[in-house]
Design goal:
The chain is an alpha/beta fold and about 500 residues long. The protein is built from 20 helices and 14 strands. It has an 8-stranded mixed β-sheet with strand order 3-2-1-4-5-6-7-8.
């Protein structure tokens, strides 16, 4: 069966489920010009949801973002439905109910007995298999995933997910319809987590592991990823906003769907948070307290230290090369410095072999073990730099390193001596997950970067990051971390190894 492209605006659209997502999706379709039918299995909820949507349209008018006439026309097109039978003439039905496979399968089975065979059926699931939900349908080719992000009226991304039985024409119609609604659609295969929830797992998981390793506290890790890594929100504050139960459930679902692959292992600390009822903003307490008058914890920031008069540079600073002119501009002398590393030095727990930027800045003479600094999205623009130093480091060297970066106008955070630090290990894992997803045809490279920038507001798509830093950078860091990890969590994917080898061969030619 061929479904053509796009959905005519005169075609009615139904939304089943009237929670936050259902209301948001209905509002999007409504503002785009469609007649919209709202249905909920609980009597009265569809009417309540329609009233809530009307109130939001009123607020858009008050803010000058929607003309009065358009608001009135949209309200006239919105109809609460008391039964599924009232959806019979719809050309698209979007489901946004409980994330329970059996319940969704039962709903779509009922819908097939109501709507025409050319009606597109879509699920907004974020964690269940599109193939499994539509597997028992009489016409499975017209079933597709339309995964909106919350809040649906504001966030532009929509993942268009094709199950194993989805017709290409159905996926195209869903894609073109989402685009006509003013959204930015991306195509995804039916894989656990689709694009965003699959690739984003390390952003949360590495932060939680750093916390469990006592490398730094939540407020500090959040500040580092914002002010050094360029992310809009840190993982602790973001999961408090999402809801710890929601985020942990998605993580656990993806982990179980991948047969408990170590790369997707959930956090025990987050599990305990959920068990304690600290679910984030909605419960008043998560990683942070949201009680009235509660003070937000501040990140650990080093006290002022004197900058060195001169700095010696060892090796290539790679992505941190911009630090060199910054040091000279700050009036600090640069000196050449040659260092011959012994085997013992290379084997240090956090020595040069684990350094994310392939270089060291030393303020007088090299002493082992060394102080290392983290990756930054932009060394000139970032406002915070992270240093890691082992317990037996000479405190004079640590103060000199702190003073150096303070002279460059940065706040300095000193964390525990952990492999990969904070930003570098997070970015390396995001690159590995993205490269692996592209290699497995989960989505095209461009769609992956679009999804991660729009879906979770990353400053740079992970594949663009890979292009900037080089796949060999990510592979080297992950291999070093893998050597000190008890499981396969940090083992570079085959796809990343291939890309790194290809990059190396091209560099030599």
């Amino acid at each position: 069966m061929t479904f053509g492209t796009g959905l005519d605006r005169s075609t009615p659209v139904a939304v089943v489920g009237t929670g936050t997502m259902g209301q948001g999706i209905a509002q999007v379709a409504l503002v785009a010009g469609h007649p919209v039918r709202l249905y909920d299995a609980v009597a009265g909820r569809a009417k309540t949801a329609a009233d809530a949507i009307g109130a939001r349209l009123d607020r858009l008018v008050e803010k000058g973002r929607l003309p009065d006439a358009d608001r009135d026309a949209a309200r006239a097109r919105l109809t609460p439905a008391e039964s599924l039978a009232e959806l019979a003439d719809c050309g698209l039905v979007v489901e946004a109910i409980l994330e329970e496979l059996g319940v969704k399968q039962s709903l779509f089975g009922e819908l097939e007995g109501v709507v025409a065979d050319d009606c597109l059926l879509a699920t907004n699931t974020s964690s269940l298999s599109v193939t499994a939900i539509g597997g028992a349908l009489r016409v499975p080719g017209r079933f597709v995933g339309l995964h909106f992000f919350n809040p649906a009226p504001l966030l532009p991304l929509v993942e268009v997910v094709s199950g194993f039985a989805t017709d290409e024409s159905a996926a195209t119609r869903a894609y073109e319809t989402a685009r006509a609604w003013g959204k930015t659609p991306v195509r995804s295969a039916d894989t656990p987590g689709f694009i965003v929830n699959r690739i984003a797992r390390p952003f949360y998981a590495e932060a939680f592991r750093l916390y469990e390793e006592r490398a730094a506290d939540p407020a500090t890790i959040d500040a580092v990823l914002r002010e050094c890594g360029g992310f809009k929100m840190g993982p602790f504050e973001l999961t408090d906003l999402i809801g710890q139960d929601v985020n942990e459930a998605v993580t656990r679902s993806v982990w179980e769907s991948f047969f408990q692959d170590a790369k997707f292992t959930p956090s025990l600390a987050q599990r305990r948070l959920v068990e304690s009822g600290r679910l984030g903003r909605k419960s008043g307490h998560g990683w942070f307290s949201y009680a009235d008058g509660a003070e937000r914890p501040q990140p650990q920031t080093a006290e002022p230290c004197d900058a060195p008069e001169a700095v010696a540079v060892q090796g290539s600073l790679g992505p941190a090369a911009e630090l060199l002119p910054m040091i000279e501009e700050a009036g600090i002398q640069l000196r050449e410095f040659e260092l011959e590393l012994s085997d013992d030095a290379i084997e240090l727990p956090h020595g040069t072999a684990l350094m994310p930027v392939y270089g060291a800045l030393v303020s007088d003479a090299y002493v082992a073990p060394c102080i290392t600094f983290d990756l930054a999205l932009d060394y000139r623009a970032c406002t915070r730099i992270v240093l890691a130093a082992p317990e037996d480091v000479d405190q004079r060297d640590l103060r000199a390193a702190i003073g150096l970066f303070q002279r460059l106008g940065k706040q300095v955070t000193v964390i525990g001596d952990v492999p990969g630090m904070i930003v570098a290990r997070t970015v390396a894992m995001l690159i590995d997950f993205a490269v692996d997803a592209a290699d497995r045809a989960v989505a095209g490279p461009e769609d992956i970067d679009i999804a991660m920038r729009l879906g979770v507001n990353y400053p740079v798509g992970p594949l663009e990051w890979c292009g900037r830093l080089g796949p060999d950078w990510a592979q080297t860091l992950l291999e070093a971390m893998s050597e000190v990890s008890p499981d396969t969590r940090y083992a570079p994917s085959l796809a990343l190894r291939r890309r790194a080898l290809l990059h190396e061969n091209r560099s030599r030619s």
